[in-house]
Design a protein that fits this description.
Layout (H helix, E strand, L loop, with lengths): L3 H23 L15 E7 L4 H12 L12 E4 L13 E6 L6 E7 L6 H10 L6 E4 L3 H13 L8 E4 L11 H6 L6 H4 L3 E3 L4 H14 L6 E2 L10 H6 L2 H9 L6 E8 L3 H21 L5 E8 L11 H11 L7 E6 L4 H14 L7 E4 L6 H4 L3 H4 L9 E5 L34 H17 L11 H9 L19 E7 L13 E8 L6 E9 L9
Parallel strand pairs: 1-4, 1-5, 5-6, 6-7, 9-10, 9-11, 11-12, 12-13
Antiparallel strand pairs: 2-3, 3-4, 8-11, 13-14, 14-15, 15-16
């Protein structure tokens, strides 16, 4: 048996170790620091979570494909991706952009956000760097973009203030903070919070306007008398038949009786409430005489929260579904359901509608923005959106072509390893929307950072801002928002209704993609992808 003093010494030694090392164990990890920038180069800081590997991979993919000419980008771009995917997760991933004949390079660097290295921390660290970045690319949602814009506005920058690039933050207006309340601002415009912001995506207002315009232009979707089956197949003849349908609709409607329409907002999601309001504005614009259709009486339903089970609606969503089913348009008429949210709440709510009335898809068309990506309906549809059990037409928005796979024999070959190969018939593949958006972003930025007729990189954020605003053709408006008419895409999910065809002989539905050509006002279909296509089914 050990002597008692041995135990005393052991405990004392252990206590000394705890005293010596406990402060270090409890101290927060050191926050990240920006990397040095070689002389003559400039940096664009890409701020995102450390788990955003897929987003970074798509970004690098899009930047690398900017080597291909097109979309107004300069020729001779060279993208170095050798340090884009380092072995160590603690390393800073980097992709370098150069142009032949130019001195200097643009370095996109992924600075990872953590509990200690927050957006505010990185902004302060970048503000103290010499030189500070040319721009900061971040704010991947509207609420995070608000925080980032506030931090950049408040920072004390060394030299010229950098630009703020927003890639996927779409809200026009955001919730006010204490400073806004003190100034009497009830709902500030996101793009105006930091006065050197440029948005490469479209706004909620633009999305709602585009989707509404498309729906009102399509005789098989627009509110009013339901178009005859097969009307889309009539082609030009449909244009001759359609003018008679509104007249029939108005004759069938009671005098001065508007069609009931519905909009749902999830109150715990600022994106949902803002987009819902923008859709109501767009529908009101039509009701004021901009569209030739019956008047709509839009009822707005507020759902307190968007959490719930996989397929079963939460209590508030179930009540909304019951109210909508009790207030559908008259038989033979179609109306609109605004459902501005992500896939889970939308799936639960629409399934509840179909379970309550399997024919509801003939009387409602659901419209939304970009909260539900095309991957939900194409790549992941078997579990994320089983079309055969959610038989309601749905129209959504994308910021770039979601099926923009490389065409065989195209004049500009993609860089090796960065091809966008179309899936074989019946197979699925991820949407190309994000990659195409990042390629467009890179080409727009490179046109201003490597301007034609000069041999040096644009080193000044002030000069870069001037050149972005002076691009031809124009890409941004005076506030820094992306201009309408520069690449909006609308996607339509057309389910196959029960009774239209025997199961197994027709797909469960069809995904169609439409866009506007720069010189044309009408929507043009560019893709059609059958879902659950049988052997020997129709090709795109």
């Amino acid at each position: 048996m050990r002597k008692w003093w041995v135990w005393v010494l052991t405990v004392a030694a252990a206590g000394g170790l705890v005293v010596a090392y406990l402060p270090g164990l409890l101290a927060p990890r050191a926050a990240g620091r920006p990397r040095p920038v070689p002389a003559g180069d400039r940096e664009i800081a890409w701020l995102h979570n450390p788990t955003a590997f897929d987003a970074w991979e798509n970004f690098v993919w899009g930047v690398k494909r900017a080597e291909m000419a097109g979309d107004g980008g300069p020729d001779g771009l060279e993208v170095d991706d050798s340090r884009a995917f380092p072995d160590k997760t603690t390393s800073v991933p980097e992709v370098v952009l150069r142009r032949k004949g130019f001195a200097g390079a643009v370095r996109f660097r992924w600075y990872k956000l953590t509990n200690t290295s927050t957006q505010e921390h990185w902004v302060k660290a970048l503000a103290a760097a010499d030189p500070p970045p040319l721009a900061v690319l971040g704010g991947w949602s509207s609420d995070r973009a608000r925080v980032l814009a506030d931090a950049m506005r408040s920072a004390k920058w060394r030299g010229e203030r950098p630009l703020l690039f927003l890639a996927t933050a779409t809200a026009d207006r955001v919730d006010p903070d204490e400073d806004d309340a003190a100034r009497g601002v009830s709902s500030p415009n996101l793009i105006s919070i930091y006065d050197r912001s440029f948005r490469f995506c479209f706004t909620n207002r633009q999305m709602a306007a585009s989707v509404t315009d498309f729906v009102m232009s399509d005789p098989t979707l627009r509110p009013g008398a339901i178009a005859l089956p097969g009307l889309r197949a009539l082609g030009a003849a449909a244009d001759l038949l359609w003018p008679t349908l509104p007249a029939l609709a108005f004759d069938a409607l009671p005098p001065d009786e508007p069609l009931p329409a519905h909009a749902i907002e999830w109150r715990d999601d600022p994106y949902s409430t803002d987009l819902c309001f923008k859709f109501r504005e767009a529908l009101q614009h039509c009701a004021d005489g901009a569209c030739d259709l019956p008047r709509l009486a839009v009822t707005t339903h507020s759902v307190p929260f968007s959490t719930g089970r996989l397929n079963r609606p939460n209590p508030a969503e179930a009540q909304v579904a019951e109210h909508i089913l009790a207030n559908l348009p008259p038989p033979g008429f179609r109306s609109v359901l605004v459902i501005p949210t992500v896939s889970a709440p939308a799936r639960r709510t629409l399934r509840a509608l179909v379970q309550g009335d399997p024919r509801v898809g003939r009387q409602l068309v659901a419209v939304t923005g970009d909260g539900m990506g095309v991957n939900v309906f194409f790549r992941d549809r078997e579990f994320a959106w089983p079309t055969r059990s959610i038989s309601i037409p749905l129209v959504l928005f994308t910021h770039a072509d979601p099926f923009g796979w490389d065409a065989p024999g195209a004049p500009a070959a993609p860089p090796p390893g960065y091809e966008l190969t179309a899936p074989r018939p019946g197979a699925v593949r991820s949407s190309t929307e994000d990659i195409r958006l990042y390629t467009r972003l890179t080409r727009v930025v490179s046109a201003a950072t490597f301007p034609d007729g000069e041999g040096e990189l644009t080193l000044s954020p002030d000069r870069l801002s001037e050149r972005l605003r002076a691009l031809r053709p124009e890409f941004f408006d005076r506030s820094g928002d992306r201009l309408s008419g520069t690449g909006e895409h609308v996607v339509v999910l057309r389910p196959t209704f029960a009774g239209e065809s025997a199961r197994g002989k027709q797909p469960d539905g069809v995904l169609e993609v439409y866009t506007r050509r720069p010189d044309r006002s009408e929507w043009v279909r560019v893709h059609s992808r059958p879902l659950s296509r049988p052997e020997g089914g129709p090709q795109e």
